[in-house]
């Protein structure tokens, strides 16, 4: 069994209801998708390449301020129960934990975590820089993620196109690579059956909704994850607002 | 609820129109909506990738298709591979299939021009911090350039948004 006491908050700092507006918003998550220009994207790279990516990024992370003391979990060397635990604590995606589809974990699949911030490695993109905060804290979480992006960007060569911005494996993430989301509890709207109108309205303002555990998950316990839909044509800070 | 048009399929698009203070609501299935030329933002939001693949499946009139022999020189991926998986092979695919991807990005995001932080600026700022422009000026210059491009390409919707943002920055 993995030891989550290695993390200062046990990986559940986002769940302690200490943040702003925590009576309504459980947590805020911001992630940036980045890829190394020297490597092909995840769908076409080899096991050796994924190990190289892991080594390169971890080397850069150890030199950074924000991830110098990061704990590393190699998902490809963990039992399913442990992977499930990391996923439930919102530290890794379902895909990285190998909990969807055929249930296999990609070699090199890892996560680095230090306090409120971390990086998923060898996910759909080489790096998924992520920050998780209790309550409604988009600005604070974005600021933290942006700082780590800058720190890593100085040490790593990210794939960037002058017109399209940061390049990602899936075109839906191109541009800023940013997905800002809040996990919000809306029992009143569900009980009064007003929730569908609200969810329809979200699309009009460029937002989308998902379930408790993000992409591909179901809405349970009246928890909704609301996030931005597009990543191109708006600055990251603008999207985060 | 069944579609008002064909009465067979499930209605997924609900269109409310107000003409001369008269409110009319139309419930359509995806097929009938497409025939009527109704674009559903809700459908886009639910599955951006589905929209992407759907748009691509409709052929050359929507997305310019590269020749089937075209492949990315770096990773060997073809545009057909992308159609099937929805994922690109490597960063260079964005250059190899630039034209169809530009069209696709415009459909997905409403724009093809990245705004905000630029990676090159970051590298430069890291090596020559004293040469870095103040953030406001940098952003305004960037927005002006994007505005010029938007007007040139007759993307007036984006141009109007950029103009508004420039006002805020300036």
Question: Would you spell out the secondary-structure blueprint of this structure?
Answer:
The complex is a heterodimer of chains A (241) and B (170).
Chain A: E1 25-34, H1 47-63, E2 71-74, H2 80-88, E3 110-114, E4 117-121, E5 127-134, H3 138-155, E6 160-161, E7 165-166, E8 178-185, H4 187-191, H5 195-204, E9 207-210, E10 223-228, H6 236-240
Antiparallel strand pairs in A: 1-5, 1-8, 2-3, 3-4, 4-5, 6-7, 8-10, 9-10
Chain B: E1 13-19, E2 22-28, H1 30-35, H2 41-46, H3 48-57, H4 79-85, H5 93-96, H6 98-109, H7 119-127, H8 135-152, H9 156-169
Antiparallel strand pairs in B: 1-2
List low-pLDDT spans of chain B: 40-47, 57-63, 128-134
**Count of DSSP helices of chain A?**
6
Mean pLDDT of chain A: 86
Oligomeric composition of the shown chains: heterodimer
User: How many β strands of chain A by DSSP?
Assistant: 10
What is the first-to-last residue Cα distance of chain A? 39 Å
Number of strands of chain B: 2
Strand content of chain B: 5-15%
Helix count from the secondary structure assignment of chain B: 9
Rg of Cα set of chain A: 17 Å
Mean pLDDT of chain B: 71
């Amino acid at each position: 069994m993995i030891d989550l006491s290695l993390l200062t908050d046990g990986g559940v700092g986002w769940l302690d209801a200490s943040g702003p507006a925590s009576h309504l918003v459980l947590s805020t998550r911001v992630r940036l998708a980045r890829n190394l220009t020297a490597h092909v994207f995840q769908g076409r790279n080899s096991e050796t390449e994924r190990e190289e990516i892991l080594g390169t990024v971890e080397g850069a992370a150890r030199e950074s301020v924000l991830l110098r003391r990061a704990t590393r979990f190699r998902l490809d060397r963990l039992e399913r129960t442990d992977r499930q635990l990391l996923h439930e604590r919102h530290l890794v995606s379902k895909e990285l934990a190998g909990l969807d589809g055929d249930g296999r974990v990609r070699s090199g699949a890892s996560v680095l975590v230090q306090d409120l911030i971390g990086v998923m490695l060898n996910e759909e993109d080489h790096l998924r820089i992520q920050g998780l905060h209790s309550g409604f804290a988009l600005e604070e979480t974005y600021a933290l993620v942006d700082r780590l992006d800058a720190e890593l960007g100085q040490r790593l060569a990210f794939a960037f196109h002058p017109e399209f911005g940061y390049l990602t494996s899936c075109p839906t993430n191109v541009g800023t690579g940013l997905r800002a989301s809040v996990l919000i509890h809306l029992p009143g709207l569900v009980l009064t059956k007003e929730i569908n109108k609200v969810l329809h309205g979200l699309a009009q303002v460029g937002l989308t909704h998902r379930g408790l555990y993000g992409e591909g998950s179901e809405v349970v316990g009246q928890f909704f994850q609301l996030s931005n839909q597009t990543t191109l044509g708006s600055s990251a800070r603008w999207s985060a607002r | 609820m069944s579609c008002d048009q064909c009465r067979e399929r499930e209605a997924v698009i609900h269109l409310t129109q107000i003409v001369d203070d008269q409110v009319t609501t139309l419930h359509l299935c995806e097929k009938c909506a497409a025939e009527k030329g109704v674009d559903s933002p809700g459908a886009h939001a639910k599955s951006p990738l589905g929209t992407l693949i759907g748009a691509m499946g409709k052929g050359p009139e929507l997305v310019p298709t590269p020749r089937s022999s075209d492949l990315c020189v770096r990773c060997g991926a073809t545009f057909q591979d992308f159609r099937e998986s929805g994922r690109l092979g490597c960063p260079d695919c964005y250059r190899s299939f630039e034209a169809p991807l530009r069209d696709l990005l415009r459909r997905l995001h409403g724009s093809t021009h990245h705004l905000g932080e630029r990676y090159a600026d970051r590298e430069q700022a890291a090596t020559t911090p004293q040469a870095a422009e103040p953030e406001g000026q940098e952003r305004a210059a960037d927005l002006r350039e994007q505005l010029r491009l938007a007007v040139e390409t007759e993307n007036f919707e984006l141009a109007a948004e950029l103009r508004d943002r420039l006002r805020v920055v300036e």
